[in-house]
Amino acid sequence: MEKKSGRISKGVSSSKRKDQIGTSRNQFFEEMTNRLLTRDVLHGEEIIEILEKVAAVFMNQPMLVEVDPPIIICGDIHGQFKDLIRLFNHGGDYVDRGAQSIETACLMFLLKIRFSKDFFLLRGNHESSAINRVYGFMEECCRCYDISLWERFQCVFDRMPVSALVAGKILCMHGGLSQELESFDQIRQIPRPVDIPQCGILCDLLWADPDPQAIGNCFLHFNFKAICRND
């Protein structure tokens, strides 16, 4: 017996769905976007198609994304789908806590696929299997789908960029700066796919806070200009 919920059902592949996927990728992704925006449900093969495509898009872009203004930066969506549709550029923590993490992530991934040079997504500390298995995302995937969907999402999260540099002056990340960071090349050279480690530059970029009790590095004063000179 297939699992179902009011939002997403596992579903069975139909010939119509296969025809739609096989015709035009662009039309398919546009259709999926419109369906999410109108609160329609997505079937399993549709979500898998989205995840496979966006993983490739992320891998074709650097770990440190360099962008020029004007740009709007937002973050910590945490599965709040209604808030998401009002925002169009984010800075990590897309899943967990809210009731619609699957729809939230899928909509952002679709926008990334369709507008890859203008829409940027950075990884947050909840885009990690160790965290989102605890804070609700795994439970949502299993309730609405099955564990394999959650595992596929982790494969995408492990390929996401972690930082953005705006106009060569503003460094964006979900967490904070690392004492080990001396050059932007250290971010660019972080290999992917990669899970979030418990220490080091990648951990600090996603976890560091100006707080001695933070999981990552505690940063209060940091010479950002020195990093720029070393780049």
Written overview of the protein:
Pfam families: Metallophos (PF00149). Its cofactor is Mn(2+). The chain is mainly alpha-helical and 231 residues long. It has a domain at 15-174: Purple Acid Phosphatase, chain A, domain 2. It is built from 11 helices and 3 strands. A 3-stranded mixed sheet has the order 1-2-3, with no helix packed on it. A hairpin with a 3-residue loop joins strand 2 and strand 3 (170-173). It is globular. Mean pLDDT is 83; it is low at 8-13 and 88-92.
Report the major sheet.
3 strands, mixed
| Molecular shape | globular
Largest sheet, order of strands side by side?
Answer: 1-2-3
Strand and helix order: HHHEHHHHHEEHHH
> How widely separated are the two ends?
56 Å
Looking at the overall shape, the CATH architecture of the domain at 15-174 is 4-Layer Sandwich
Determine the CATH topology of the domain at 15-174.
Purple Acid Phosphatase, chain A, domain 2
| Structural class label | mainly alpha
**Number of β-strand runs:** 3
Strand content: 5-15%
What's this, in brief?
The chain is mainly α and 231 residues long. The protein is built from 11 helices and 3 strands, in the order H-H-H-E-H-H-H-H-H-E-E-H-H-H.
Keywords:
protein phosphatase; Ser/Thr-sp_prot-phosphatase; EC 3.1.3.16; globular; 3-stranded mixed beta sheet; 231 residues; Purple Acid Phosphatase, chain A, domain 2; 3 strands; 11 helices; mainly alpha; PP1_catalytic_subunit; metal-binding
